[in-house]
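Let us work through a complete example step by step.
Step 1: write down the sequence.
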Amino acid sequence: MRTTIGWQADRATAQLRRTPLQRRDLRPDDLAVRVDYCGVCHSDLHAVGSRDPESGRPLVPGHEFTGVVTETGPAVTRFSVGDAVAVGNIVDSCGECLMCHAGQENFCHTSPTLTYGDVDRHDGSTTLGGYSREYVVRDGFAYPLPAGLDPAAAAPLLCAGVTVWEPLHTLGVGPGSRVAVAGLGGLGHLAVKFAVALGADTSVISRSPDKADDARRLGAHGFVVSTDPDRMTAARDRFDVVIDTISAPHDIGPYLRLVAMDGTLSQVGHLGPVTVETIDLLVGRKKLSSAGSGGRPATAAMLEFCAEHSLTADIELLPSARVNEAFDRLRRNDVRYRFVLDMSDLT
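Step 2: predict the structure and record it as tokens.
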């Protein structure tokens, strides 16, 4: 076993504490990655807050990170020591089901192995995430980090980025498309950047009028205040695609009514139960969809697209020792738009 240092959820509190962690010895197709930067996802906050302290399973969050290869297994041919890489929220899958063969490992029929809080397919150990100085991962689930992308600002692309890339790409968004992004947070700001770079006429829907300037800075062409009934009525049936990135439970009816005939509302923020009025789908033959992360081909394509368009997340970089501060501020939505931890203080 290999020993590294990371931030683990304390069983008795909602705090993360610095502690030694055990990583497996490298298997033939493994990489050892020195983690340099790890994004702080809202799901990390949820995982720590909802964990069962009696389970006995360690919880180390972090599933969007960049770093450098420090060692390779004997069967690895795609990477060499010193290569810059990125790792997302999936680190293994069965490789045999229809979804895996389609390059959609995120939908693996036996469930993909998640970067943290999951069970390793080979030895049954608990996967420990990227809030650590080292991670060991199958080479097939690591991605070359394109030259020119800031590794800190690129880290959130591996979760927040691919989550919104998946529906935009599969729904064929491009020049002539009319896209609205509901919610301007970690997911939403990247959805705006992607939609604009894809050539779409892009608007932001937000309950916060003070985000209008940010929306324009990100490239949005329009801004709709969701709490203004007149503005929402004026935007009815206007958008071919609405990407709903709002993380809190909410009524999706008002957003469906903004979708144009034969258009799609893709909900990627709040993934809990929703109530849908059939009439909101019926009038205009509208579609309700969702997406979760992305498979390996889509993730690689997203990174290349980002390199081509010099596109990364808007981040606030913090030393990893301030991770609990980042969690506290994330609870208050006090970030524009993604915290990233600098792991270099873990020595």
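Step 3: interpret the result. The chain has a mean pLDDT of 96.
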